[in-house]
Amino acid sequence: MKKILFTMALAFSMLTSANADYFDYFTVEKSDGLKTSYVSVNLVITFSGSKMIVEHDGASTSYDLNTLSKMYFGYNDVTAIQNHTDETTDGRCEVFDLQGRRVATEMRISDAQQQLPKGVYIMKKGEKSVKITVK
Q1: Best CA proximity match to 101, nearest among 57, 63, 50
Q2: Helices and strands (H, E) in the chain, number of each type
Q3: Is the pLDDT confidence value at 5 over 80?
């Protein structure tokens, strides 16, 4: 009886210590370089045939495994995104919503602030990414 209780206590302590060491983010990187990160809380990942389905907070995104270059878990893995300045966004940029979906290409900040619905967006030009808020 003591062996059973000891084994159960040991298994329980291993499970709780494993849960305490969870990853903060899950990141998917596509072959075109587009990265999408998900907070690991309430995250469900399933595979069906050649597709990976990521479900997070009621939203579902499907990825064709052939288009992915890598996927990984990490701690505080989201890249730093600055507020926009004229030097980082002069010219035209790609615009993404917070779910990582491209909503516009070749758009200036002034156009984005007039044409996009209210919300927060990420504008990317080359290796620089900036956050804009449309009010």
Answers
A1: 63
A2: 3, 11
A3: no
CB 93 within 8 A of CB 85: no
Average pLDDT over residues 72-81: 61
DSSP state of 75: S
Query: How much is the pTM?
Result: 0.43
Six token digits for residue 84: 């926009």
Q: Which two tokens stand for residue 53?
A: 């389905």
Sequence letter at residue 55: E
Cα–Cα distances (Å) from 76 to 15, 36, 40, 62, 81, in that order, read 23, 13, 11, 23, 13
Total length of the chain: 135
With a CB cutoff of 8 Å and minimum separation 6, the contacts of 25 are 37, 38, 39, 40, 73, 74, 75, 76, 77, 78
What pLDDT is attached to residue 19?
44
- For residues 100 and 57, is the Cβ–Cβ distance under 8 A? no
Give, in order, the Cα–Cα distances in Å from 33 to each of 48, 71, 100.
23, 12, 12
Looking at the predicted structure, is the pLDDT value of residue 124 above 80?
yes
